[in-house]
Amino acid sequence: MADSFAAAYSPAGDVRRQGGWLPDSQDDLEAWLTGHRERVAAKGEGVALHPVLAEFQALVDSDPVVRMYLSEMIAQVPRNRQYRNRHLESVPQLLQLVNEVLTMAPEYNQDAMVVLPLGAILDWTMGTPAGFAAFRDRRINTMLKKVLGVWCEFLSSGDSRYVLNDSPSGWKGEAARRAIGIEQYQHDPGDEYWGFTSWNDFFTRRLADGARPVASPDDDSVIVSACESTPYGLAVGVQRQDRFWIKSQPYSLQDMLANDECADHFIGGTVYQAFLSATNYHRWHSPVAGTIVRAFVQEGTYYSEPDSEGADAVEPRYSQSYLAHVAARAVILIEADNPVIGLTAFVPVGMSEVSSCVIDPAIQPGYHVAKGEELGYFQFGGSTHCLVFRPGAIADFSLTALPQPHNPHPPLVRVRSRLATAASG
To answer: Fewer CB near the last or first residue (10 Å), C or N of the chain?
Structure first.
């Protein structure tokens, strides 16, 4: 039964670094921040803020609580040896650093890639007392959503394709081609930009026909992986409401499922969580054949970390299950054709820069999905997802699906490959 395989598997490691969203080395992240700060400083103080950041500045100027949170989270960054370089000195400087990012598309770097530049800028502030409060504040999250929306617009424009070149920092370079396995994706080798209309179009690239066959397509007892991802956590006996913000971070069904009435169906059930890496495929697929019950997007936070981790939250080692309860996310409920599986929840969660979980327009109540059929995609950035099963639904998980917290290079679970087997009826 599920109880026998879950207890020993708890999450560990900073998944943003493990997933290649930020550099493994703190020195490499420092070097990128230093270079970014110097680029902004070289342009002088006369650079006009984008209108969305001018609006953010107006909020800071007019709201003393917002101004206090943002000022204090910068001042509270530790001054020990690990944080000896002060990359942030003031709120105006912070807004200028973000302003520069709004016309940047992530470049490839084999050794020290920064795919989440906003997350890199905010990284140290996220683990301060004022930062914990700031990134949960609705006023600040509303502005962050607007900022991320502007950046997403740029990444969806033709201007963002400049990084699709064959230089060492380009995504068409030899090292990048190997890292993403471009031959596995639909693209036009003869086109200057591989046929992609923007950076986001490249980021959400589709698999080539036959690249990821559906495991046991005619066997409803076989559950497949919804994403191309690395296992992070596995929990059984989950509760309707629990203290997801404490250090052990149990799952809280009511909160994760955004107060949906379905939560009671999953009490005592199983939650499987896995994260996507920067070079992974970023579209979602149905883990089972079944009928869509509901599908919706829940707004949430964008850079919040659990203060139960204390200073460790600056490098969020255990925050991923917490994010499943508070970050922007989608909730898709599927009534599986297999009655033993029954109601199943798929919850794709945005981490850091991801402000957009896009559900396919066809995924409406009453629509029947085939196992492995596409459900939607992450528009940009670091991401994680959960699958929630009723008690008694799962007989076992595949060995590759079990989290390996002490393995620095855990195996990747391919999308649409076998993830688990349902219990017998």
So the answer is: C
